[in-house]
Design brief:
alpha/beta, Rossmann fold, eight-stranded mixed sheet, 10 helices, 8 strands, 38% helix, binds adenosine-5'-diphosphate, binds magnesium ion
C-alpha cells in the first residue's frame, strides 16, 4: 500500500524543514518519494528547494479537475524526489476546491511508495479530508517555545488535538521534537510515550545551520550533512523507515 504521511505542527515548529529533509533521505534510501506542499495559503517549498517559478501547481489541480495531476509534478534529480508545489499567487489560491484534494492525492500517491505532505501551521482544517486517506501523521513540536514549567501542558494540549483529527483512529502517529536546546528531551519523550503511547521518532537540536540552509535554498542534509541537526534528522530517518515499513 502507498503511504501518505502528514507533517503537522504549530507555526514555525519545523514542518517544512522536516518534510523536505526526511523526504530526500527516504528518496536516497531508494523509496520513490513525493513531496507535497500542502501549506495551501503560504506555500514555501519552491523557495526552500530553489525551484524558481512554477506554473502548474496543486492549486491548478484543485481548480481544474481536467488538468492531468502529473502536469503539476516536478522531478528534482539532484535530490531524488518529486515535488507537487503550491502556488504563491493569491488569484490561484482563491477558488481552489479543497474537495478535490482526495481525488488528487489518490491519483498521485499511487505512483509513489511514499507521499510526504507538508501542511499549514496550526490545525490543518483545510486539509481535513486528507485524514480519510493518510496513513501516518508526524507531529513536529518546538520544545523550546513553551515556558519550561508549562511544557507538559502545552505538549499535551497540542498532541491531543492532532491525534483527535484521526477520528476513526486508523492512522499511525509519531512525534519529532525540534529546536531542542535547554530542555531535557528524555523527560518529554517519556512523557509523550507514556501519556499518548505515541513514539518519539526524532530529537533534533537547535542548529544555526538550519536557517542558513533555508536562506541558501538548499536542503540541510545536502548542504551541511555533518551538522548536528542533519545528523539528528538522519537518525530520525532510520527510525522513520522502520516505523513506516517495519
Ligand atoms: N532545528 C532547528 N534549528 C534552528 N532553526 C530551525 C530548526 N528547525 C527549523 N528552524 C528554523 O525555523 C524556521 C521555521 O521552520 P519551518 O520548517 O519553515 O517551520 P514550519 O514549516 O513548521 O512553519 C525556519 O527558518 C528554519 O530555518
Ligand atoms: Mg511550513
Amino acid at each position: 500500500m502507498e503511504l501518505i504521511v502528514l507533517f503537522v505542527g504549530p507555526g514555525g515548529s519545523g514542518k517544512t524543514v522536516m518534510a523536505i529533509n526526511l523526504g530526500i533521505l527516504m528518496g536516497r534510501m531508494g523509496y520513490n518519494t513525493l513531496l507535497v506542499d500542502g501549506d495551501i495559503y503560504l506555500p514555501d517549498m519552491t523557495e526552500y528547494l530553489d525551484m524558481g517559478a512554477v506554473r502548474v501547481t496543486l492549486h491548478t489541480l484543485l481548480k481544474d479537475p481536467l488538468v492531468e495531476p502529473e502536469a503539476a509534478l516536478y522531478k528534482l534529480r539532484e535530490y531524488g524526489v518529486s515535488v507537487l508545489p503550491g502556488s504563491k499567487e493569491l488569484g490561484q489560491v482563491v477558488g481552489a476546491h479543497t474537495s478535490l484534494l482526495i481525488h488528487v492525492f489518490e491519483e498521485l500517491s499511487k505512483e509513489y511508495a511514499l507521499t510526504f505532505v507538508d501542511t499549514p501551521s496550526g490545525l490543518p482544517m483545510d486539509l481535513l479530508e486528507l485524514y480519510e486517506i493518510a496513513t501516518h501523521q508526524v507531529v513536529v513540536l518546538d520544545v523550546e517555545r513553551a515556558g519550561r514549567g508549562e511544557l507538559p501542558y502545552t505538549i499535551h494540549d497540542q498532541l491531543e488535538k492532532y491525534l483527535f483529527l484521526d477520528r476513526e483512529e486508523r492512522m499511525e502517529h509519531g512525534v519529532i521534537l525540534n529546536n531542542v536546546q535547554k530542555v531535557d528531551p528524555a523527560l518529554i519523550e517519556d512523557y509523550i510515550e507514556e501519556t499518548f503511547e505515541v513514539p518519539v521518532l526524532g530529537v533534533v537540536p537547535y542548529d544555526p545551520h538550519v536557517p542558513e540552509s533555508v536562506s541558501l535554498r538548499r536542503p540541510l542534509i545536502v548542504e551541511f550533512p555533518h551538522s548536528d541537526a542533519a545528523i539528528a534528522i538522519k537518525d530520525a530517518g532510520k527510525v522513520i523507515e522502520r516505523w513506516l515499513f517495519g
